[in-house]
Model the fold of this input.
Amino acid sequence: MSEEKWICPACKAENTGSGRFCLTCGAPRFAKVPDTVQEEEKPLTFSELKQMREPHGALRSVSYSFWSNGMMMNSHEESEVTLKRLENDEAELLIRHESGLSGGQKDVYRVPAATLSEIEKIAERENMPAWSKMKYRPDPRFMPTDYSSSSHLSLTYGDINPKNPQQEYFSIDMAAVPQEGAGIINDIISRMKAAAEIKNLQKHEDIPPKPMNGMMGIMGMKEALEVQKKNSTNGAEAGPERKLVFDGQGYWICPECGEHNPGKFCANCGSRRPEE
Done:
């Protein structure tokens, strides 16, 4: 007698036997997944997103950020490349990198605004603000438990004043971008870094090593964030009395995790921007 065969209601994979869960995705065998729900959750394709228009003003800044951390010693790494338009026909370029026990450096350059104008044309041609709608959906079966990383390209349009609620901010998760889009983003990053070849260095800062992060990986990062949180709140629990603090780039600093943000919520931990 042949074994029973059934189709998974979630992923449509064919299963053999009397098991109660799909061998491919782990979904319950008798789960009901309405067609309407499936259609609503179907992600937009890259081609469809390129046709969508997101209203916005002039491009004020573009920023690439990378963060990684793991349980391995010296695994913590952070990078940032930010190009910000100034009030005159110039722009400010910030390049920062730090890594575990090695520390790092932060350099600020004064460059022509032409580079940002070139990037703005690329973003308009490819309709990149709509890319922020792409969401990365990792397969839990292949997610590492001892390492995590994230990289984003952020576009800020409109008024450069961070207190202006009308500014538009779009964050693109590079893990969700297909290969075609990744090539465009890498081209933008290369253009920003190339602007530093003008050698008009305005400020250099050596970033000291972070022994706790470098030696203890994720565990060290968590402890460091707790220390930072206690220092920023004088040992009190975070609440309505949290102060709104801005960095030199005009972004507000999250009191929970230290992330620098332009929007209303922290891009790293999701905390709401403190009240003024």
About this structure: Confidence is low (pLDDT under 50) at residues 36-40, 213-221, 232-240. The two ends are 73 Å apart (CA to CA). The CA atoms of residues 37 and 232 lie 44 Å apart.
